[in-house]
Amino acid sequence: xxxxxxxxxxxxxxxxxxxxxxxxxxxxxxxxxxxxxxxxxxxxxxxxxxxxxxxxxxxxxxxxxxxxxxxxxxxxxxxxxxxxxxxxxxxxxxxxxxxxxxxxxxxxxxxxxxxxxxxxxxxxxxxxxxxxxxxxxxxxxxxxxx
Length: 146
Fold this sequence. Notes:
Blueprint: H1 3-21, E1 25-33, E2 36-37, E3 43-48, E4 51-54, E5 56-57, E6 61-63, E7 73-80, E8 83-91, E9 98-104, E10 121-130, E11 135-143
């Protein structure tokens, strides 16, 4: 094998190892309030021990920090405008799907609430995970203290 061929193989091996070490891209396809898409900048953070670390963002989403790979589930904080949306226990497989992040204001959508007394709910927000086969939704409700 000539020198040029050896260099090409080594460069390819280095590129493959760099590509496999990079984080997977999670796409946020839409941010919405009351079902209406809004155009806004957002920031994504992950909880690592007791600290929040900022995710590297791309044009269409974010990358999971490499120090979090191998975990079964992650806690995420998404900030935009005046909102701070915290989601706990998101299974690692959901980061391969496209996300729609939303806030539902009063009166709350009956599709999103599963509560006997919605008057106690002060905030409702969600992530809809659009997978290849189906969509699932994670809804978080914050209630007024009694």
